Short-chain dehydrogenase/reductase SDR
Amino acid sequence: MTTDFARKDRAAFGLSGKVVVVVGGGQMPGDTTGNGRATAMLAARHGAEVVAVDINFDSAQETANLIIAEGGKAYPVQADVAEKQDCQHIFDTVMARSGRVDGMVYSAAVNPPFDLGTNSMTTENFNRGINVNMLGAYHCNLFAAECMQKNEGASAGSIVNFSSIASLKNEIGLNIGIMPYALGKCGLNYITELTAVQFADAGVRANTLMLGPIDSTLGNHDSQELFGHTPDEVDEAYGEVVKLKMGRASTWETAYAALYLLADESRFMTGQQIRLDGGAALVR
Ligand SMILES: NC(=O)c1ccc[n+]([C@@H]2O[C@H](COP(=O)([O-])OP(=O)(O)OC[C@H]3O[C@@H](n4cnc5c(N)ncnc54)[C@H](O)[C@@H]3O)[C@@H](O)[C@H]2O)c1
């Protein structure tokens, strides 16, 4: 397999000619750019045609509009990833419209509502969390990989699943509020490895980007709900979690790490859990 990696004038992390599907590519309403949206915008800046998928169509459309306004190529698709047929619809639509899938980022996630006082959650809400965080990831990994294996060449496609250090460690004990999220992310870590093993000989890679505290609207909102904190207390709590003095990362740190995983430069890497957490999960 030849590359031009050694060329001095080579532009790094180019995604031209690639179609990248960002599931959860809209964002929760708010001022702070979400991880999916930042990744979608950066992939487009590096030449990819981006498909922004979200349950919230207007938000997916907004991501596409931001990309188009910068001179990039993008379009939105609406889907509820808790539904298998919606996941299939995503990839059927992209194959019909763009003809190929080269990258898939799974960024959709929810923390279902719960009662902090009684530490309780309805079974329906619990199941909803698992269905979005884990079952949807399974279907999107499978359907994306099935599209990617049709691509020619030794490096057929790259899947990047956004997980969380909540799947590794937690200091809030048996709080039901974190369960569908943390367990869903544990499942997502495992799904990544299964995808990597099953599709390696088709040239399809799958890696987990394991995020720590990132400054996003959803991250701030959910932390307030889970811990009952004020916005200032959330900042303070995360300040203690992150070991690096810079404090919480922005979603652009996520996007640049995802860009590496999507690009051919990472073509020898698969099945890995890459922590992007400011040292939060370091053992001291
Ligand atoms: N912000 C953090 O601190 C942090 C930490 C660890 C991991 N993450 C992960 O980063 C990812 C993005 O989170 P974010 O904080 O940037 O929030 P975000 O604003 O990107 O919100 C997630 C998106 O998922 C979409 N979504 C929810 N349910 C869906 C469904 N059923 N079908 C389709 N789309 C759906 C939402 O509409 C929203 O646009 C998530 O996977 C999250 O777990 C974030």
Summary: The chain has one domain: 19-278.
